[in-house]
Amino acid sequence: MNKLSFNNGWEFTKVNSMSMDTSLEKSEIVNLPHTWYSNDDYYRGMAKYSKKLLINDNWKNVFIDVEAADQHAYVYVDNVLLTEHKGGYSAFRCQIPEEIYKGKKELEVSIYVTNALDETISPLVGDFTIFGGLYRGVNILYTEHDSYFDPCYYGTDGVIVRTSLNEDYGLVDIELHTKTKQDDRLETIIKAADGTIIYSYVCEIREHIQAQIKNPILWNGKKNPYLYTVITRLYSADELVDEKITKTGFRCVEIDPNNGLFLNNEHIRINGVSKHQDVGEKYSAVVNDDILNDFSLIDEIGANSIRLSHYQHSSFTYECADKKGYLIWAEIPMLKMTQNEELLDNAREQLKELILQNIHHPSIYCWGIQNEIGMFRDAPYMYEDLIKSKELVKSLDSQRLVSAANLYTVKFKSKLNETTDMIGYNVYFGWYYGKMQDYSKYLDKFHEARPNLAIGMSEYGVDCNIGLHSNNPQVKDYSEEYQALYHETVYKIFETKPYLWGSYVWNMFDFSSAIRQEGGLDKVNGKGLVTADRKIKKDAFYYYKAKWSKEKFVHICSKRFVNRLEDTIDIKVFTNCETATLLLNGRECIEASNNGNATIIFENIRLESQVNDITVISGDCSDSASFVKVKEEDKSYRLEAEAAGTSVKNWFLKDDDLTKEGFYSIKDTVNDLIENKDTYEILKKYIPDILEMILSNEDFPLGLALQSVINRAKPENLDINLFNSELNKIEVEY
């Protein structure tokens, strides 16, 4: 099968619909990858891409290869609908029938794409942008023969490679989907990483080929990301007519509720980061160089795992992970589950595409089947459907774990915790609720309540605007200092919990979220350790680099906090060195030691002049910064409108201040208050009509704070303070 790039020179325009095909604006010529999203125009509707395809007389079978279309696509050739695809993140192909192109020199290819909200396509909600567009590119596949590997089977190449281990053998199962004639033959060759042929076999056409490799070298994460090459060839009348080359590896992954994750029978703690696919103002229309740059930054920080959130990423991304030895959490965009059967079927279709297109990648250790669906409710139909998804995964891939990420509001006892092999929790103490230190008690209670559950932290973090700073960092000040303080406080807690399989920082990079405007950031989730344009590494980046990387370095924090009012300041340094020396204006000032948490603090450094040059040295490592002594506070470092010190409003939760620590209040979620029998009775007493409305509406967002619901419903004669004080008497249960 031959491949031609078909990315340049598309005519693009936004349209009302396919039937009317009325342009909403003037068309333009664009190259792929392309998204129509901009921060100034979050268009959620339909667009049309059109391009001429020149036909070669020798082509016998021609296919259109769409690497991804966000989110619902229709492919037409000469006004004939060839295929429809629902889902914005997986590849799909379609064949152009011979009767369409026979005798023609060119064809009109039109791809309609819409990112309008569709209740039958996941995701329905999410704290990220649904960009729209042909944002990964399009190719033309063709062959001059009648026999070929079928590229239309769930977007695969027609060759699906699975590996497993059995005692001293590596087992390779090659699932084949072919279009062939009688007497066609298959040849399979497996090569070691050095190119040595270790297996060769020729046979008649069949659906499976199985091979045994004695004493295989294991793909062992960053220690040794060893890859084998599987070459599958198709011969017709002794002529080679098609060939597929697949990189793969052998490894085993297991998980234990008390001791965490094991790779090849060796314990490995997940030191992970999460990432979305968009980059700066390119948004989702990234190229391979952007992906390589992301990996270089993750390499630098020293992580060993990546959660590729919250959908299927490009095939190149998984290939990079294979080569670099990262363990990958791969998932589908199931972020809100309803009882719409079409939606549930679509989620499983996306799951099947994710697995079949990527099963050969040894870096993928788990398949994620949902993220935060408990945001809206915790209902029996959800467990039943998730079990179906787990069974689907196991039927396609028995070698990997099934995972899910639950929201903090999901109770320990919830059956949502019983549908997968492992579970992650997205918890934001010290930002959306509670205090940073609450993680310790919370996690211990979780493990005590569910000792047979393999748990870890799938999300944690705080937003940071690199232009904001504080000598007294607090929640909701969005300062670089609070983000750094949060991570060095929270991650230290995680390290003390041996039962955790590990954790994923949310997020490695700031990312686009068209629904957000907070902390001085517009349409950006600022929880990244690196800015969305990848130009600036925030201080918290260097904390994790000091914890995870072997590269020796020192990093002075708060460099962007230049103008200082105080006479004396503390200089915080993130480092993996044992000691360091601080120089002030070229003069050696003080030596200090690492506190054991990747941090050195030089206390009470007196600013002696208007401009104070600071250098920190440890062996061959050094870093420098300058601080300016000013007479008045630089107010540009803080947001006047923000109420620093109070919890941040979540993108789906509302918040207020009628709280009593450790007890319920109207700021708790509807879900929590309904589930507790004591608070449920209080709701029946004070707001019976609202309670009935909630219970009778299956789409009601149970993740909303009750106060938000009350504010909207405006019940008459409700004594809100008395109501809240009754809730304040009931102790919170997890």
UniProtKB/TrEMBL annotation:
<dbReference type="Pfam" id="PF00703">
    <property type="entry name" value="Glyco_hydro_2"/>
</dbReference>
<protein>
    <submittedName>
        <fullName>Beta-galactosidase</fullName>
    </submittedName>
</protein>
<feature type="domain" description="Glycoside hydrolase family 2 catalytic">
    <location>
        <begin position="259"/>
        <end position="546"/>
    </location>
</feature>
<keyword id="KW-0326">Glycosidase</keyword>
<comment type="similarity">
    <text>Belongs to the glycosyl hydrolase 2 family.</text>
</comment>
<dbReference type="InterPro" id="IPR017853">
    <property type="entry name" value="GH"/>
</dbReference>
<keyword id="KW-0378">Hydrolase</keyword>
<dbReference type="InterPro" id="IPR036156">
    <property type="entry name" value="Beta-gal/glucu_dom_sf"/>
</dbReference>
<feature type="domain" description="Glycoside hydrolase family 2 immunoglobulin-like beta-sandwich">
    <location>
        <begin position="161"/>
        <end position="251"/>
    </location>
</feature>
<dbReference type="GO" id="GO:0004553">
    <property type="term" value="F:hydrolase activity, hydrolyzing O-glycosyl compounds"/>
</dbReference>
<dbReference type="Pfam" id="PF02836">
    <property type="entry name" value="Glyco_hydro_2_C"/>
</dbReference>
<dbReference type="GO" id="GO:0005975">
    <property type="term" value="P:carbohydrate metabolic process"/>
</dbReference>
<dbReference type="InterPro" id="IPR051913">
    <property type="entry name" value="GH2_Domain-Containing"/>
</dbReference>
<dbReference type="InterPro" id="IPR013783">
    <property type="entry name" value="Ig-like_fold"/>
</dbReference>
<dbReference type="InterPro" id="IPR006102">
    <property type="entry name" value="Ig-like_GH2"/>
</dbReference>
<dbReference type="InterPro" id="IPR008979">
    <property type="entry name" value="Galactose-bd-like_sf"/>
</dbReference>
<dbReference type="InterPro" id="IPR006103">
    <property type="entry name" value="Glyco_hydro_2_cat"/>
</dbReference>
<dbReference type="InterPro" id="IPR006101">
    <property type="entry name" value="Glyco_hydro_2"/>
</dbReference>
